[in-house]
Request: fold
Amino acid sequence: MKTGILTSGVSQDFERALKLVRADGFRYVEIQYAWGAEDGSRSDQQEREVRRLLEQNHIKCTAVMRNIFSGLSLDDTSPGSLRYQNELEYLRDSIRLAKSYGCSKTRINSFDRHQVVFGYGGAENHLTDGNRIWLKFLRLMEPVCQIAEEEQITIMIETGTNGFLHTAALMRKALDELMCDRLMALWDPANCLYSSEIPYPDGYERLQGKIAEIHIKDLKICKQLASITYCPVGQGMMAPYLKDLAAALHRDRFQGGVILENQVMPAGGTEEEGYRLSVPAFRNIFIRNTK
Reply:
């Protein structure tokens, strides 16, 4: 596996982030934001500096992480809508950026979350409009699959807390029905845990063979109050699953990225301080654990 770090979870100062990542022994990163600008939104000069710093530090970017389709309403989106077509252009921009980095993956999101997607026994009449939203989602993904095939690139859909595909089970169903080999999962098991899906073995086994990359973070959840508190890796509700997941990835010779996505920020502190709270456990579990 390629263990790495999301640099915007370390510092918006990209040079500073790479310095820390390299000092901690990592050679792979995702970026998403650098100098306050998202992947695909930075100037040509900034992108030249990104590439220079990556080369200087002997670090490789595993995937482009622009937010595409994030929060977009499935109910209000059609294939011909201007917003949807704009998002497809952002995707093409992301693919060009990925190729300039020499990486073969880019991320998309999965539109907005629906609390109930499938209804039965009458629920389809009251909660899901006859289960039509699933078919609409699949139709909106068809041009994405076509672009992936044309560009010969892997497009990863993330399991997002607020996304339409917010569990490994929903992700696997979508991937199986779309039947596009270049469409894969960016699996974030902590996000899926908010939807009560057990990360290991349940989530991992459901997606096995369809995972391009994995995001690792930890959190504490109170579903009754719809709240999430991010915490250092190994100190939250992901803790019981991490060592077994790492062992399975070693056992199965997983070749994708396993990326620490720090989102912890201590009160009055910085991303860098949050990163430093998580990186020792992340390294110990995913690099040294060979159970």
Notes: The radius of gyration is 19 Å. The chain has a mean pLDDT of 97.
